[in-house]
Amino acid sequence: MNEDLFEDAAYRKETEVLFMGNPLIEAVPYLGDPRTEYASKLMVLLPYDKEDRNLGIVERLNKLQYIKQLHVASVIDTEIAMNIDRCLHWGYYSRNPMPMSVVQSAVEEAGYPYTDSMKRLYRSYKAPIYGFPVFGISGVGKTCSVMNVLTNYPQVIVHTNYRGRPFLMHQLVWLKVNCPADGTMKGLCHAILQEIDNVLGTTFSTQRSYNRVSKDIFISDVSAAIDACRLGILVIDDIQSLCREDSPASRELLNFILSLINNADIPIVMVGTPNFIKIIQSEFQQAKRVTGEGEVHMDLLKKGSREWNRYMTTLWTYQYTQKAVPLTDEMADAFYEETFGNQFLLAILYKLVQDNAIISGTESFTVQTVHQVADAKLGLTKEERAKMLDGEDCRLENLEGLWDAPSIPNEVIRLEKQSTETDLVQKLATVLVSKTGRTMLEARGIARQVCAAYPTEKDPDVLYVYAKKLIKRSEKPTEEKGSADGVPNDVH
Fold first, then answer.
1. Are 79 and 86 spatial neighbours (Cβ–Cβ below 8 Å)?
2. Count H helices, E strands: the chain?
3. Which spans in 33-74 are helix H?
């Protein structure tokens, strides 16, 4: 149990008549006006002082970890916040623990007549709030955006007294669980019960042995736990881990989620990659309910867009090299060429570039440095990163380790030894981009092949002639046999 997550109930004066007399709703704060107040509440900015540039190496390397915590709010963040706010309040609408006499008193105190038609309205069927999915490829900030919204609400609200009557309850406003490694419905159920126990100090996950129990018992136990703690909204992260196309287990999981929504009256937010949305779209009824509040699709930052400019400008604030490096169009282009607008990769590359500058003693970096560090540190993910251009998902989990340890001096020395060769590749690639219209990614691939075939040639103009031959050869309809080193014979 983490008592730091607990807050005493502070009841708002509710303006929506259907929410009056409901302590679960009145204790949950509103985030304010989406047009004017959301942006500041959803931004995560850490303190920065230009004098930090004069700190020692270790202190500055530690400061670079600030970059990982940074979150720049976008239009999508506002959409997620509005959906969560709506799900929380309307999700609690059908779960008022107070008797009708309390509701009637609250309505009449607000100046509304408690008529027979209103009484019938309160007792009528209340349509469930299903929730919504948030999906996008790895690294675009799905989990970060959802969590930044949720942390604006207290996770646990402690009730003791409501409208002059004792009301003892711990209200769990939100809960986030990660999909379990075993990828089963039972694993997910146990993860939900265990996380409730971790937050509230309860024992739901240990009250029964779940080795050989039916799906109905699981649903019953999870629904009972959710009802007991008055959970407001459930977030399931990495939902694609439990879903496989044309798999009975996937259908069972989706049916379980729908059963949970219907039995526990709780909205569920599912966070995952596009693979998941393809699965639920295969069956209309499931898609309609799982996407009840609409789909939220998070995409890569588009170069030149408002979101891109805002993110890069904010990111650039956190610079700890002793020499200030301006954010030019060429510099921004270099970062985009290596990351394709993936926020996770942008932050990692910016951090690694500064790692290299600080440890090597150069205390600065250039466009060429950006490409050098990307080749050295992100080279193993090049194919995965290229998939992002086609909207495919890519695995970026292995890059997490790059946050934990900065570049070591041996790495810096290796980069310096390669600098001449890498500079030549970059110069040739730049020429190819300007003269052939190739993308920088394609141009560097060609440039590396040509430089490898002619290791003693240092003149970019001469190498460009060879590169044109390589391009011409690759564009021929009938492929001719190349040499053993992978470069066509007529280039040698």
1. no
2. 22, 8
3. 38-42, 57-63, 66-69
Reading the block at residue 103, the tokens are: 């509701």
Beta bridge pairs of residue 375: none
* The token pair that represents 465 in the structure block: 């002639």
Please count the other Cβ atoms lying within 10 Å of the Cβ belonging to residue 360. Answer: 18
Residue 71 is given by DSSP the state B
Q: Could you tell me the two tokens for 279?
A: 């699965």
SS3 assignment, position 166: strand
Q: For the chain, how big is the Rg over CA atoms in Å?
A: 28
- Of residues 158, 159, 202, 196, the one with CA closest to residue 175: 196
Strand 296-297 relative to strand 131-135, pairing:
parallel
Question: Mind giving me the DSSP string for 186-210?
Answer: HHHHHHHHHHHHHHH---GGGSS--
Query: 133 and 295 in contact (C-beta within 8 Å)?
Result: yes
The label of the residue with tokens 């510099």 reads: 331
270 strand-pairing partners = 133, 236
H or E element in which residue 222 lies: helix 215-228
Question: Residue 125, Cβ neighbours under 10 Å: how many?
Answer: 6
pLDDT digits (tens, 9 = 90+) for 301-353: 999 999 999 999 999 999 999 999 999 999 999 999 888 888 888 999 999 99
- Give the global pTM: 0.75
Is the CB of residue 173 less than 8 Å from the CB of residue 157? Answer: yes
- Which residue type sits at 365? F
